[in-house]
Amino acid sequence: MSEESTLNCSSEDVVVVTGMGVYSPIGNTLETFWDALAAGRDGFREVTQFDTSMFSTHIAGTVEGTWRSMPEMSSWKEEDDCVGYGLYAALQARQHARIVEGALPRHRQALVVGTSMGSHQTKDRARQIFDEDTEQSVQWFDEGRFGVETAHIARGLGVEGVCLTLSTACTSSAHAIGVGRMLLQMDVADVVYVVGVDPIAREAFAGFFTLGVMSPQPCAPFGAPEGMSMGEGAGAIVLERSTHATQRDVRCVTALRGIGLSCDGFHPTTPEPSGKGIARAIESALSDGGLSPEDIGYYNAHGTGTLANDAAEWKGVQRVFGPHAASLPVSSTKSYLGHTQGAAGILELIATLLALQHQVVLPTLHLQQPRKHIPDDPVAETQPRAHSYENAVCHSSAFGGLNATVVVGQKDEQTTSHKQEDVEVLGVGCIGAHGFGSVTEALQDGAMYLTDAGETRLFDKHKGPAGFVSCDVPRSFVKRVDLNSMDPISRYLTVAVASTLKDAQVRLRGDKRERVGMFVGTSRNPAESSKKFFDTATQRGWDRAPSHDFARNVLNAPAGVASLAHGLRGAAMTFAGRHSGFFSTICAYHWLRSREDTDMLLAGGCDELGEDELVAYAQHCRPVSQIQGSGSWTFEEGGAPHPLGEGAALVLLGKAETDAAKQSDVRISIVGTALAGQGRLLDVIRTLSYEKSTMPWDAIFVAESRKDGSSKRLREAMMTSFGAEASSVPIWDPVPRLGFAAATSSSLALVAAVESMKTNRHELLWGGAKDGAPPKSVCVFVDDMYHGCGAIWLRVKESR
């Protein structure tokens, strides 16, 4: 790698890449990875991780050796491959960025992980012994939750700042890169590690096989035989502001020039054939970076090798690049790696960065029989070709119609100045154990909505309280959509979108839908669809696994269904883990206020309870009895007191100058947001209140999984900041009455906060604010053990 060019870090406010690391089918170090790229050597070999005898495809891009044998990984041998792959790549990236452990403040280092499958090996173990050894199954279920893998990787890196998880199938790590850049722009961190990781999984292999898109030979994107090849691995990059890198006196690999996102709103698994969705993402990224199509010298395609994807992507490229497309090198590095799922975006970006450094374009291997309607220059060669250029595009697409484009360049100059616009809450909506509609009205007079799990869902292994959604939604509430054809979580989210748009009095039509998107969080794979997929595959054989339920099994599937139902075609992401709906809202706010191509974003969380989750909960919290007629339960000493819940809760965020904002009776603006590492509530309060000594909020909203959770710590932190005045400010939590929905409850608290500011519903929560009037200034807080602390400050801007 001695001939590589470097970037001169000089400009302010530009996010640059300073370190890279890989664990991949073609190499487990940057040097071996580049050697394979330079030699035109792919990483396809026979799959040994599971039995493939029932399939007609037996190869994939798989890693050689094992990370467990690496000396630096000796203390992590018992971890899931998802943790091992990701941490190994991240440690390489840290070393490449010349970050010495302990040299930088740990709380100013953040981590964003993108993964489609998460710790699937751990979850598989839990499923396999669920009926025989419930207690052991519960331990593995807890360890396999989304967000836990991120916490483990953070611990291995010594990161104590914000830790977020993205799960958007094959765009997971591309989205993670966008969020990582956002954290730096928000000044939440000085250094952000971005990791994309997915070990090969039998369920994914079987799912793609039954979809009929797998090639029996190493994939040949744009050529024959048509079809994709699976892959696995991990990639990691270190992001920081160029000024910070200069202060550390480190070399910058490249500048992160632009990020673009879109949603097709077309089909759960097939891209929109005309390539319009892909084109919108590319155009958005170019605009973000202040670049024209002619400024791009190389395009690394999503390029799976399937007919539908390759054709749609090329049409999208032609839409954006016009005549320049004829001379633009367009190749696919999946011909080296296979489709590495959630790691695809970042591994392919690292390949692009290395190509840019060495001033070459990478070939599309195995392209001996080109198909019709493919790029004019697919680089159909066996080794990289010398090529002089300054900027490159790396594109990813995914189930649910998601598109994510990253633009990188050798110059770190900031050519586009983004105005930071004011953002308001235009509407709210939710569905939960209380039904659908106003949550504050439903909870008047201390009403509770907990029912017995055995009676509600006929679960065999769990008897006890839970906040189930059991209401019937009128067919007319969501027009032209069959809600009964959806799995529960997709139905919840689709109804919540409809409720939110109705509350905001917003109707989406025509091209306006391209400027409205959704950032949503969820805590687990859709429970019903996941169970159907695994039960059927186990009974009938993995070669006959239900492809329909496979497509529904990815974490971002509900968002894809809801986007299709409502025609949302703008920027879209799915965050994963506890309180992910709340963290997605903070990111939606910052995305919206700096993007010219986005007018409104729906943001929040959705959850669906499964029997495995309820059984895991029961091991930690054993309800003894129900108080007759009250809906309240008593618990054993030491048990977590809050039952689980499900549902969906959203806010519609819009720019203050939109017509929808101006016509609102009560205009509620977001004053600001704050993020910090776990347990750093004081940092969040001081950042958000601008170091003020007087209490700025009339009321506080939270969502806790345990009664002995963050409220006590929050009260103490507020009193430290504002004195005795903070002791009388009311704190409201919806969880005791509705159950704790892991990704959604904090979003539900945000919905309740907005409702309380718009009407006299606040009296239903705690009997009024300080002066008996609706609160004018409210803050919603989250303190999560895996992801960190966060807060959103709301204030009434104007009332008619």
Write the layout of secondary structure elements.
Layout: E1 15-23, H1 30-39, E2 44-46, E3 59-61, H2 81-96, E4 109-114, H3 120-128, H4 134-143, H5 148-157, E5 163-166, H6 172-185, E6 191-198, H7 202-210, E7 233-241, H8 242-248, E8 254-263, H9 276-289, E9 298-300, H10 307-321, E10 330-331, H11 334-337, H12 344-357, E11 360-361, E12 385-386, E13 391-398, E14 402-409, E15 423-432, E16 435-436, H13 439-442, E17 451-452, H14 453-456, E18 465-467, H15 488-504, E19 516-522, H16 527-540, H17 547-552, H18 557-566, E20 572-576, H19 580-594, E21 600-607, H20 611-620, E22 623-626, E23 633-635, E24 644-645, E25 647-655, H21 659-662, E26 666-676, H22 681-688, E27 699-701, H23 710-722, E28 731-732, H24 735-738, H25 745-758, H26 762-766, E29 777-784, E30 788-799
Parallel strand pairs: 4-5, 4-6, 9-10, 9-13, 18-24, 19-20, 19-21, 27-28, 27-29
Antiparallel strand pairs: 1-7, 1-8, 2-3, 6-7, 8-14, 11-12, 13-14, 15-16, 15-25, 15-26, 17-18, 21-25, 22-23, 26-30, 29-30
Helix pairs in contact: 2-5, 3-4, 4-20, 9-10, 15-18, 22-23
